[in-house]
Automatic annotation (TrEMBL):
Gene3D superfamilies, A to Z: Four-carbon acid sugar kinase, nucleotide binding domain, Isopropylmalate Dehydrogenase, Putative sugar-binding, N-terminal domain
Domain (Four-carbon acid sugar kinase N-terminal) ranges: 4-223
Protein name: 4-hydroxythreonine-4-phosphate dehydrogenase PdxA
Similarity comment: Belongs to the PdxA family. PdxA2 subfamily. Belongs to the four-carbon acid sugar kinase family.
EC identifiers of the protein: 1.1.1.262
The keyword Transferase appears for this protein: yes
Keywords: ATP-binding, Carbohydrate metabolism, Kinase, Metal-binding, NAD, Nucleotide-binding, Oxidoreductase, Transferase
Amino acid sequence: MNRISVLADDFSGAAEVAEQFRRHGLATAILTGEDGQFAGGSVEVIVRDTHSRNLPAERAKAAVARAISRNADAKTMLFKKIDSLWRGNIGPELLALREAGWRPVIAGALPPLRRTVSGGAPYVDGVPLGQSGTWALEPAGAPQSISDLLPGLSTAVLPLQKVRQEGLAPALREALETAEAVIVDGETEQDLAAVAAAVRQLGFRAGGDRLVLVGTGALAGALAAQLAPAACRPEAAPQIPARGVQGTGPRPVLVVVGSASGAAVEQVGQLRGASVAVFDVQTAETGPETVQEIQHTLRGGSTAALTVQPGVQADPALVVARLADTAAAVLSGVPSTDLVLTGGETAREVLDRLGLTFLRPLGQVQHGAVVSLASDGRLIASKPGSFGTPAVLLELTTMLRRMRSMESATQETGASMNNPSDTRPYIAVTMGDGAGVGPEVTVGALLDSAAYRAGRPVVIGDVHRLQLAAAVLGVTARIVEIGDVSEAVFEPGRINVIDPKLLPEDLPWGQESAAAGNAAYHYIRIACELGMAGKVQGICTAPLNKAALHKAGHIYPGHTELLAHFMGVEEVSMMLSTPKVKVIHVTTHIGLIDAIAKINPGLVERTVRRGYEALQRAGVPDPKIGVCAINPHAGENGLFGHGEEEEKIIPALEKLRADGINAVGPLPADTAFFLAGRGDYDLIVAMYHDQGHGPVKVLGIEAGVNITVGLPVIRTSVDHGTAFDIAGKGTVEIGSMIEALRQAVEMSPSPAA
């Protein structure tokens, strides 16, 4: 495959895009500075931060021109990352590309954050960019259309109707015959995938010119998925020391927040609520007493945060410089500190002061919230200022600490990772139905380079079947049978398997089988027994087949009921997760009339408590929960319905609030999801199946994950079935299983000491 070169105008955007390629199995490096060079190992994707977002237009144009002359030979595929809110020097930078012989194809939607393009104009949450509130801190007016940003280029717009019709590639070629740049409408991940496929179909060329894809991390993800569909090559994980450079304790974490967005302010509030020491930086130079106080906090292995003093009106560049100067002064005395950096400009200024020019992405906790390993061994978490849920900074600090604990045992002994200092949770991964795609997605997820960085997954399944799955995927894996979780060794390319020997070796792919149904049943049983014994802290399940389960004599509707049975739990809840919000359901798979009849104050209260406790276990200290009403407009004072809100929901909320749970409602469902989409709530409680599922599908389940809460341990699952039609063919997309495993790790506690 030809090398891919990516240009981004700030560091957090560079990391966002780099992670999209990494998670699809492509070896990826991030370079900063014009002289930054790739250091060591093979690489397929180079992402370069030109640091040009806030430069004067001519300097930004020159920076891109220099970068393209260095990084795009005749065989290179070029991707230009732009800001999803259309900030920065987009016009001058694309003009530089055009003058170098490239024609931009601009598809700037970011569906996970509901940032779309319609009629060639930018929208946020369905309203024009300038009316959305996301542009409030910008000095100039928001663009009415994307062509307004491109005064030096002739443009054409491909409307959504054409994007969703067959023949997009010819339509794109035709538009490029008369336009120097084409703006493509988009609202969904599928729209972006269609654009990436069309450009690839054209061979990244049109009319004698080369094409450059221009867009957000979502477009990069669509391209990466098409370039590396198997996405399951094992990658040697870098060594990440568990402790500080003197080996005296866990590494501290310094959070530097250089964004004044409402989202960032709320995220800092969550840090304060978790008792993190937060220091407000003045526009004047930070005094030595404050620097020493921060260093003292960090030397104890704790987390500290630097942020902008609330209400300060100052030149943003000056504020960023003060933050970076303060961070550098602090880090000079505590050099083994890991970092969480919010805001691309802030991130780059801090990295420059530390002399860091080369990083590798390792994983993400939410879209755009990425953890990378720097050349000096430091872990660097970064995110754009407006991205993330209120708890994202807490999630990133937790991720850093878990990743630090990863190799403590192997570095010291080379043996199994049972060292008490290793805080990563154990996760039981059930293989699912052996005749379906379960073995393939299990192998793919366990070979992902991030599989062992924050968790310790052990497969419950069949060794021979997993070996067959690796063969059809075309990957190399060391699949090792173990007798107990304590025997597991976690190394890249190795998969630890507890095998109850239940599948015949000649089991055919893609056929319903009592043997496979029975084996899947017992894989769940073993996982539950491990959970009840405290040997695993979470469960992640590949799909089983209900008909095969029933054929084997196990009459259960599915995974959820099986788990509840084995763990002796009468009532559990389904939770769905999106990049913006998590949704838990009071009722699920029953008719609407039956659902309303079933809802009562006790059930509502128990559901909210289950969601509250699950989020607390995941590191959200005080979740804010929005509770949907049953009727339109929450009944509108009796105008709609028969008083269901007053009878079934309000008594539960009163009791919950009396116990200190921040539960708000009953809210009109449309309002609740709008507010959740902009980050006002950590969790939404839906009263019935479609009330929760419909908005979640729009907000976008990034890779399709169900979460079961109310069990003694968290359980996550892929959101697809056994797919008998493609089983054993090596074509299954494993992203959902990777995401399910990631969320199982994220929501599971550390093992008990």
